[in-house]
């Protein structure tokens, strides 16, 4: 299950890399400026906003564990179909529509994906499991642009979207054999034999009413604070990532294929940060990890101001990779720890609102800053949002580590 969900995150990551990577070519084809290109990218996240909340809440009603694999399969089908349709679409209207549908599919997949890997892993190492499965994001951020760059050398930007159905079909076939009731029971037996904590309290009755599940998540303090933290980290990340290839082609003078490869270099170190900070949060607490990551993210994004050559780009982006995706598994672990009755709804609302709003708003705002104030002020603005995350981080209630254990005792 860890392998399947990691590959699903790889799919989401590559999808979110495709548009920023090929954005210079799309802007040329449709004669778009930076602000218009930012709005095009926003449609993907508007879809994610709706998909994550709707499917995340409904997924709890269908049931956890192996039953959650059914709703997961539905999200995967949507993303595969959208990838194929994008390849065949012509005209800006078709591209806009299918970017929205793709966002709906990947946005819906992410909370279900996190809940699913949590359902198949003991609580003591939840941060490690979610962190490991989330390595699909940084791996995709590096591998994706490399694959896209190879396709661009022989094909067009539309061809790059075919990676989504290819990966989607593979993981759906794997899930048919993995996400079964028999395998779930094998996991639970293994956990019980070692006197560890089951991922779900079997004594708690989960309501089938999606509105009650949603309300249960909304009134949870940590889920709401986690949503704020996620929003601020995502604003910084996506605001920087969306225009990286544009910066490398227009300011540094690289070819699109070369810029595509460098833009994904943060993935070289990103997977390390995912596993390390997720595991550290299990032992030293979610607050501790998130505080370090907020400062690291802000400082490393400020470093992007100094990207004036390919060499500097490699160095700065590799450093950024240690912090870029690392906060999300810690925030998701916090949400799962805190919402025992409605993990899917909690994650759906947390991811849907933070991902949807930040993705929809930051790209036109960053595009406006680049157009009117330049790259330096854009990165200063983006860095400030990571520093702001320290406020909700301070307010969360700890759910892991020694402090949480002492409180429980």
From TrEMBL:
Localization, UniProt: Cell membrane
GO cellular component, as recorded: plasma membrane
Keywords: Cell membrane, Membrane, Transmembrane, Transmembrane helix, Transport
Residues covered by the Major facilitator superfamily (MFS) profile domain: 1-401
SUPFAM superfamilies in the record: MFS general substrate transporter
Transmembrane segments: 40-58, 70-91, 137-155, 161-178, 223-244, 256-280, 292-323, 343-370, 377-396
Annotated GO MF terms: transmembrane transporter activity
Membrane topology qualifier: Multi-pass membrane protein
Record PANTHER family: CHLORAMPHENICOL EFFLUX PUMP RV0191, PURINE EFFLUX PUMP PBUE
Protein's name in the database: MFS transporter
Organism: Heyndrickxia camelliae
């Amino acid at each position: 299950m860890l392998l399947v969900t990691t590959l699903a995150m790889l799919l989401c990551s590559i999808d979110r890399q495709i548009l920023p990577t090929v954005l210079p070519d799309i802007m040329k084809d449709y004669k778009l400026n930076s602000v218009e290109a930012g709005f095009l990218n926003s449609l993907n996240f508007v879809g994610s906003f709706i998909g994550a909340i709707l499917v995340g809440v409904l997924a709890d009603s269908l049931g956890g564990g192996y039953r959650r694999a059914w709703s997961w399969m539905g999200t995967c089908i949507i993303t595969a179909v959208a990838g194929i349709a994008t390849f065949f679409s012509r005209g800006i209207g078709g591209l806009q529509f299918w970017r929205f549908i793709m966002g709906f599919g990947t946005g819906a997949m992410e909370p279900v994906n996190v809940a699913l890997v949590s359902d198949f892993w003991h609580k003591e190492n939840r941060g490690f499991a979610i962190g490991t499965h989330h390595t699909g994001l940084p791996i995709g951020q590096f591998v994706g642009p490399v694959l896209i760059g190879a396709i661009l050398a022989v094909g067009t930007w539309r061809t790059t979207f075919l990676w989504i159905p290819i990966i989607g079909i593979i993981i759906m076939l794997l899930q048919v054999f993995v996400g079964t009731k028999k395998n779930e029971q094998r996991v639970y037996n293994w956990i019980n034999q070692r006197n560890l904590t089951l991922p779900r309290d079997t004594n708690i009755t989960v309501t089938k009413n999606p509105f009650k599940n949603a309300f249960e998540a909304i009134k949870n303090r940590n889920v709401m604070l986690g949503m704020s933290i996620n929003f601020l980290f995502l604003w910084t990340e996506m605001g920087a990532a969306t225009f990286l290839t544009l910066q490398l082609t227009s300011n540094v003078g690289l070819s699109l294929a070369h810029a595509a490869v460098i833009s994904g270099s943060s993935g070289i170190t990103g997977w390390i940060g995912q596993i390390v900070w997720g595991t550290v949060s299990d032992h030293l607490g979610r607050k501790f990890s998130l505080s370090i990551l907020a400062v690291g993210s802000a400082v490393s994004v400020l470093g992007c101001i100094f990207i004036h050559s390919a060499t500097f780009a490699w160095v700065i982006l590799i450093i950024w990779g240690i912090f870029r995706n690392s906060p999300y598994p810690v925030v998701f672990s916090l949400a799962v720890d805190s919402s025992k009755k409605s993990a899917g709804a909690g994650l759906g609302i947390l991811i849907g609102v933070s991902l949807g709003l930040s993705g929809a708003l930051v790209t036109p705002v960053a595009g406006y800053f680049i157009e009117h104030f330049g790259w330096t002020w854009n990165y200063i603005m983006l860095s400030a949002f990571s520093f702001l995350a320290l406020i909700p981080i301070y307010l969360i209630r700890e759910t892991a580590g020694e402090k949480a254990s002492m409180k429980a005792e």
